Amino acid sequence: MSDTQSIILASDGDRRFEAYLSKPASGRGVGLLILSEMFGVNHVMRAVADAYAVRGYCVLVPNLFWRSVPNGALDYEGDDREAAWDRLKTFDFDLASVDMRVAVDWVRAAACCSGAVAALGFCMGGRLAFLAASRAKVDAAIAFYALGISHHLAEAEVIECPVQLHYGLSDKHIPRSEIDEVGHGIAGRSDIEMYLYPEAGHSFLNEVRPTFDPSAARLAHQRIDSLLSSLRSRARS
After folding, report:
1. Domain 2-229: CATH architecture, name and number where available
2. Does pTM surpass 0.90?
3. Distance in angstroms (rounded) separating the CA atoms of residues 144 and 132
């Protein structure tokens, strides 16, 4: 069972930088920053956070759309889907990187965190996970079906933590040229691993989406767990 609450990380006028915190019922664990899809901190992202908290992780899901309009969670279909796409077009990844650093620092200092912090992102959140590694100094980063990492490949040289990049090769939203460019950009980096899933499409890890792929998801979760488990030895005294 997890303990959940909404917290405020920062403010700007009437706007509040809120986050969903899900922590283990007792003790401390590795900090985990969940970086959402373009739909924001919806029920799926909160469920992911709760599932990790039950397993002992200290999980924070920041609303990185707090500066946007609309600034809340959106549905996967209907008018909300179009609104999500429109919001993404004007999203400021540089400003969001500053906000991520605030969130990372908060988690690292939290009573439920043992010291190490990892970022786990999906879709646009996958791109943010890569930036969390280069700019927010997390201890590990995991990106799923991230579109746009190719814009930041020059930052790979400053990454000092292990990174996993997961792509489905049947993804209709991410061209193979993007995946190939990222692969070329990280060539020779043993600490940045790319995993390809030939039959998987976009959102293959999301159980409520029609492209959910149980087989690919099972393998991906094993790889996530392997990396996150390696951080447990970095406990804060």
Report:
1. 3-Layer(aba) Sandwich (3.40)
2. yes
3. 14
